[in-house]
Structures are given as structure tokens and as C-alpha cells.
Design a protein that fits this description.
By secondary structure, the protein is α+β, with helices and mostly antiparallel strands. 44% of the residues lie in helices and 23% in strands. The chain has two domains: 2-27; 33-150, Alpha-Beta Plaits (2-Layer Sandwich). It has helices spanning 2-23, 30-36, 61-80, 109-116, 120-123, 144-150; strands at 43-53, 84-89, 98-104, 127-137.
């Protein structure tokens, strides 16, 4: 009986310890916040570009392969330049014909449009796009430095 009570108290104490650790707020880092352009809420403006199905109907698989290779290369170039924070396709068809999205590290819709127009698949009409201002965590770009650590193969 004492062993059960001792074990119960032990696990209860561990649970309280973990709960207390989770509640501790990380120390505010002004230098990091400033470098990321964070406001007082830790947020900043971005621009989302929703890629939609374009008007071009390209039947030639080799041509389409080249365009998609150029599309992926352009995404990598823009990410390396710090312009794209998030990019990726949607996994399901949807009524809006959204194919994928970019989150650009700019609050300027005009600048985001200049960047999306560098995409060979956009230039060829495979994709069209819609642009929206967005407000999100200023820390969002920080995940990119770890992406290569979890990537075994690039498409």
C-alpha cells in the first residue's frame, strides 16, 4: 500500500513539474524581434499568393516537366533570397482551383506580384494567382534554416 501511495505521489509530482515547466514563458528577445521585424505582438505583415489553375493547356509532358522544374527552381531561388517564407501545393482539389500557395516576406502586394511573375509556370499560363495581405508570426521564416535538415530528396 505504501509503495502504491509513494508511486502515485511520485508521478503526481512529475506531472506538476512538467505542467510548471510548460507554463514558463520564454524570455523576450528584443534583438531577435527587431531582426525579424516583429511588432509588439510578435507579428508582422506578409503577402500570400494563392496559385490557381491557369488558362494554358500544355499536353507535351516534356514541356510541362521543364516548366515544373523551373517552377521548383524559382521557389528555391526566392527562398534563398529570403523572399519566400512558405511554399507548397494543396493536397486536394478545391472549388476555387487553388493549386498551391506562397507566403512572401513582404507587405507589398506589388512586390509579391513582381516575384510571382518570375515563375516560369506562371509566365507560361500553367498557373494564375490571387494576392492577399496577411498578418502572421514574425518568427515564421525561422523554420527554413531547419528544412534542409529534414529533407532527404528534392522534387
Amino acid at each position: 500500500m505504501r509503495l502504491r501511495i509513494s508511486l502515485a505521489l511520485f508521478f503526481f509530482a512529475i506531472g506538476i513539474s512538467f505542467a510548471q515547466q510548460k507554463k514558463e514563458k520564454p524570455k523576450f528577445n528584443q534583438e531577435l524581434a527587431t531582426s525579424l521585424g516583429a511588432d509588439k505582438y510578435g507579428m508582422k505583415a506578409y503577402t500570400i499568393v494563392m496559385l490557381t489553375t491557369g488558362t494554358a493547356k500544355i499536353e507535351d509532358k516534356t514541356k510541362m516537366g521543364e516548366l515544373m522544374k523551373g517552377h521548383m527552381g524559382n521557389i528555391q531561388k526566392l527562398a534563398d533570397e529570403g523572399k519566400i517564407v512558405v511554399a507548397g501545393p494543396f493536397l486536394e482539389k478545391n472549388k476555387e482551383n487553388y493549386r498551391g500557395m506562397f507566403i512572401f516576406n513582404t507587405k507589398s502586394k506589388e512586390e509579391a506580384e513582381q516575384w510571382v511573375k518570375t515563375d516560369p509556370a506562371v509566365q507560361a499560363g500553367v498557373f494564375s494567382y490571387e494576392i492577399f495581405p496577411w498578418y502572421g508570426s514574425a518568427a515564421l521564416p525561422l523554420y527554413l534554416k531547419h528544412h534542409d535538415e529534414v529533407t532527404q530528396e528534392n522534387p
